[in-house]
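Researcher: Re-running this chain for the archive, since the previous output was lost when a drive failed. Same request as before.
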Amino acid sequence: MNKSLEILKKYWGFDSFRPLQQNIIDAVLNKKDVLALLPTGGGKSICFQVPALMNDGICIVVSPLIALMKDQVENLNNKGIYALLIHSGMSFFDVKKTLQNAAFGNYKFLYVSPERLQTDLFEEFLPAIKPTLIAIDEAHCISQWGYDFRPSYLNISNLRNQLPDVPIIALTASATLEVQKDICEKLSFRKNAKIFQQSFERPNLSYNVIQPPSKYNELLNILKKAIGSSIVYCKSRKQTQEISILLNQHQLDADFYHAGLTNDERNSKQENWIKNRKRIMVCTNAFGMGIDKPDVRMVVHFNLPESLENYYQEAGRAGRDGKTAAAILLIEQKEQFELKEINQLRYPSIEVLKKLYQDIMNYFQVPAGVGENQTFNFDLAEFCERFKWKTLQANYGLQALAQEEILSYTESSNKTATLVFTSTKEQIFEFESREPQFEGIIKGLLRSYPGIFDFPVSIYETALAKFISTPITQVKKQLEQLHQHEMVEYKPQNNKPQILLLQNRMYKDDFKFNEKGLLERKEKHLKRINAIINYCLNINDCRSRVIGNYFNDLSIVECGICDNCLSKKNKSSKSEVPKLLPKVKDALKKGPKTKTELQHLLAEFKIEDINLAIKYLESENMISINENGVLKLN
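Model: Regenerated structure tokens:
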């Protein structure tokens, strides 16, 4: 057994690699830059985790999803593999401590959100960390031609500049040829770089497109017949709740999930579904990334997605155990027009963006010429009401401003609570003797968080409540009271949307925006919309093949199980069976025969059509079949 298989067996319990994993690992071990395109559930993380464990030094992993990074770090630590995490919600003190551990501790992985790569503190510690591998998850985010471009991903190129000899492995589930090329260019891949693309074929997954008279009735019918876990994707948070209520009213065990829920709510709902306490999850596209549940039998899209990239990733969460599964897309004719309207909204005119920018600056009362690196809590609903913006229009405008790196917009900041003592130990002792009800929480803070006198540290109210055996509501109330008594400076956990200004406020007549780049992105987005619309309207070609060809996988054969393939079979059967009936009878006039003998005699016809003809003649009592499978005329 080779070393990589030993590590796979030791930490993951598998006896063999999945297709392409060994090839990718070998290329990484040979110090080559690698782009790996593996489908959802294809085992991307093993492709960098195994070689990292075989090398000396630490692997830096860049990912945009905090929840996914937390899960991977927790899973690695549970396996006895030491891993660290830095993300945008951490305090300066915690980041510094983590970087020190990465540089001088016995750690194998450092997970980093892309925003953290450009900080002075990270760059200061990078030479001491000495990474031997850089892994870029969700690598399509670096391409402005991709479906999920994130400007912060462009910071990754600095790693290549600072560490020119360290190999990079970029991983994604889906990328067109154009996006693949862009990823390699943005990451400055070297000449010996390798691209590995696993087939986009999913032979066990049946793709279906349905245009029903009523989506709600169709969804109920589908889920009543379905067995096992299901996911229903919706376009809005409100819709997830409405459909979840509808399903439960019809005795279908469902829950809903979206990004507007608290961390505890999301974790609880996710765990209930993974452990089969809930059968159906009705959700926005905030759900599913990084969730390891192989036995999902059905994924239903209640609305038309914006691209085949999105659809392939989300539909691909069904049947990851290799057993039969279905992906069903419910559509209405009006949706294709609505998608094209979204294209206009998502890429607004420069005049619209200029007005939105000025209104945001006025909302925060930021004077011209200042504001860089300032962060503000942002209430989108209040802003839209005050400045007369439509919510969707403002949201897409914010995304456009973020792509141009004028500001950074996060819908949920996930910032942990922070606390630092602002009083001396003598003052604390005097306060405790005067207010003994606070003794428990003060001792709990001092025992749980070293350095709490020197820096604001991240605290976790739930863990603190458990440690001092006090209800969480009381803990939060006492922390607020300690703040009011000026014993501590306490900033509660913040899940509110935030805007970070990446540059000083521009003067009104000096608004700069790359209009050419905006129009190019708009055109690419429209092409992606047209691709998903054409996929839905196509009633002739194998759906698995259409998806594969879109991603330049030209090797896919017809799946035989999608709606188009089954329709083709039915049409063929309907036209051939009438021709077969007299031929079967003529063959049997010459004497009894087995099915195999008939199939040889009628070799120009499909076997399934011959079987249908036999069934028809038997049902009409024109022929009979004995216990040995021999057919004869009646």
